[in-house]
UniProtKB/TrEMBL annotation:
Name of the protein: Flavin reductase (DIM6/NTAB) family NADH-FMN oxidoreductase RutF
Protein's UniProt keywords contain Oxidoreductase: yes
Alphabetic keyword roster: Oxidoreductase
Species annotation: Bacillus chungangensis
Tree of life domain: Bacteria
Domain Flavin reductase like: residue ranges: 17-157
InterPro entries tied to this protein: Flavin_Rdtase-like_dom, NADH-dep_flavin_reductase, Split_barrel_FMN-bd
One Pfam family, short name: Flavin_Reduct
Amino acid sequence: MEKIEQTIDDRLFRQAMGSFASGVTVITTKSNGDIHGMTANAFMSISLQPKLIAISVDHRAKMLEHIREAKKFAVNILSDQQKEMSMYFAGQLKEKRAISFEELQGVPVLPKSATSIACQLYNEHEAGDHTIFIGEVLGITLEKEAPLVFHGGQYKKIVPAIN
């Protein structure tokens, strides 16, 4: 296979990836007795049998070692009422807050999320400056909430299309 090289600057790449509307998630885990969370939009389903999902974590993120330590994590797909949770776990809100968590299959989850998915670490793969964690689904909570969406560097809500 012929390798094609093209210089694409980081800003152009980010803008291109930002043109893909995605849901907003907070990844949660518990290691060394403490609960940890990180906002992420790099999440996808992988397999139905077994039920597998994937998340991508930057090598500089503290969450990388927390997931490796815990061997379990949850993906909390945020509702359109949880923008502040996204901002908090992305480090955009600096003041400390008391965050309430529930538990799903022994993994901390954020209440009132549109969906929470608890996983056992199935595998991991290094890919560039990130590690892709594949999780085997242990449990799911599903609420009837609209998801929070991120597109073009902004939070958005889903509005029904006019037919």
